[in-house]
Amino acid sequence: MLRYVFRRALQTAAVLLAITAATFGLFYAAPSDPALIACGPKCDTGQVEAVRHSMGLDQPIVQQYADYLRGLVAGRTIKDVDGTPIDCGAPCLGYSYTLHQPVSAAIADHLPVTLSLATGALAVILVLGIGTGLVSALRRGSRTDRLLSGFTLIGASVQIYFLGYALQYLLVYSTDLLPLPGYVPLADDAGGWAAGLLLPWLVLGFVNAAIFARLSRAQLLEVMHEGYVRTARGKGLSARRAHLKYTARGAAPPLVQLLGLEAGALFGGAFITETVFGLGGVGKLAVDAVVGNDLPTVVGTVLLAALCVVVFVAVADLVVAWLDPRVRLA
């Protein structure tokens, strides 16, 4: 197991290094002028040159990438448009000349919203997705199974932006059943925190739980007919214990891998959900950066999203290897 963990850690590090190189090459080595884009249309020639020097764009490409990696590990000093030195601590993701602050600081300001949204949505996905899939599998072919299958099909087909706006209109503006979505820090008001994120949790969780439920139903049905499960039942083990001890463990690996992908995507920024409900998370920060041509912030949020996906997928792979020892030999 330790050898597999070490090998998987090396693979994760290699993937992250490749992502940083691809992102750096895409945004900084492109034919367009990153200094002009970062500084904005109101900057004069002197300010653009100052930004170009601050970003290291007057250095060779290899030196630029080395400085970028060094900033991620040890931090660096960046100059603002007016020449003011700014300490960008590790991990230094660059400096936003639009927001006038380091990108890492901007992400840190928006990260609590994304963490709150992703945590609640994952809870909905786990409870609703696994619960619905389990009930459908145990009652295969029944009216309940057909009803839940149709319900999950609708959930898998509907778009988040449509469902979000529709439920917001029906439950907030028309009937006042739910409060207006928003974010209140958990430490300030736990009740307001949960109330403001309830509708975003339900919308984001429902759409993803529908896909999770359909996969969990298929996996459970497949494992239920395996020989070792039938043997356990034949030896007198109750259906409940057989499903908990054997069926759940056999069906878990694909679900864990899907959950790792979902968690990585959510913690990297739920772009559509945050935009629909006006939540100031990392996803909304990335959307605003794209609209405003804030190149350093775009690069920083892309790297954060990639980091979240890679790390959560790696953790999911380790859990799968623990559940199924055959994976360690692959």
Automatic annotation (TrEMBL):
<feature type="signal peptide">
    <location>
        <begin position="1"/>
        <end position="29"/>
    </location>
</feature>
<dbReference type="InterPro" id="IPR035906">
    <property type="entry name" value="MetI-like_sf"/>
</dbReference>
<feature type="transmembrane region" description="Helical">
    <location>
        <begin position="113"/>
        <end position="135"/>
    </location>
</feature>
<keyword id="KW-1003">Cell membrane</keyword>
<feature type="domain" description="ABC transmembrane type-1">
    <location>
        <begin position="111"/>
        <end position="320"/>
    </location>
</feature>
<dbReference type="InterPro" id="IPR000515">
    <property type="entry name" value="MetI-like"/>
</dbReference>
<dbReference type="InterPro" id="IPR045621">
    <property type="entry name" value="BPD_transp_1_N"/>
</dbReference>
<comment type="similarity">
    <text>Belongs to the binding-protein-dependent transport system permease family.</text>
</comment>
<feature type="transmembrane region" description="Helical">
    <location>
        <begin position="299"/>
        <end position="323"/>
    </location>
</feature>
<keyword id="KW-0732">Signal</keyword>
<dbReference type="Pfam" id="PF00528">
    <property type="entry name" value="BPD_transp_1"/>
</dbReference>
<feature type="transmembrane region" description="Helical">
    <location>
        <begin position="255"/>
        <end position="279"/>
    </location>
</feature>
<keyword id="KW-0472">Membrane</keyword>
<feature type="transmembrane region" description="Helical">
    <location>
        <begin position="147"/>
        <end position="171"/>
    </location>
</feature>
<keyword id="KW-1133">Transmembrane helix</keyword>
<dbReference type="GO" id="GO:0055085">
    <property type="term" value="P:transmembrane transport"/>
</dbReference>
<dbReference type="Pfam" id="PF19300">
    <property type="entry name" value="BPD_transp_1_N"/>
</dbReference>
<dbReference type="GO" id="GO:0005886">
    <property type="term" value="C:plasma membrane"/>
</dbReference>
<protein>
    <submittedName>
        <fullName>Peptide/nickel transport system permease protein</fullName>
    </submittedName>
</protein>
<keyword id="KW-0812">Transmembrane</keyword>
<feature type="transmembrane region" description="Helical">
    <location>
        <begin position="191"/>
        <end position="215"/>
    </location>
</feature>
<keyword id="KW-0813">Transport</keyword>
